[in-house]
ATP phosphoribosyltransferase (Algoriphagus machipongonensis), 173 residues
Amino acid sequence: MITIDLLPHLSKKEVFSKVEEFLNQEEFRISKIDQTRPWGGFFVLDEKQILKFKEAFFDEVELSEAQLEQKLSPKFLLVAPGARLSWQYHYRRSEIWKLIAGESAIVRSDSDEQGPEELMKIGETISLAKGERHRLVGTKNWGIVAEIWMHSDPENPSNEEDIVRVEDDYSRK
């Protein structure tokens, strides 16, 4: 499992640097780093390393050979203390999340009405269905969440535009 010392007072730059150092140490290839999100940001990993990513962070998740050949968008979400991602859902993907370092919470619901905030546990896999409303929430410390996208239509994979924001703290559409 990931071992990164995260402290609430660390700057975004310091946290991203620690995660990048960890990924390089573990020989993951980074495809994209996005530190521009108001809630934190993310790292997208090389799609060709999906098996390595799955074995490291989602070993208990069963994926067929066909699924492993699809785009699964391995990613790390970094959520800042007290920050929240938008209350959102997706038309073309389900998601699998796992808190791998720090602290965070999740809110989820089958309707636009938000459910209760639940603390995530390190190492616990969370499956989010296509269309299920959800929100990642920063608590008292930075949280690092590993994520895999399960595209419902492999010929038309989901992307960042497949976010339907029901509510957003940062007035994004």
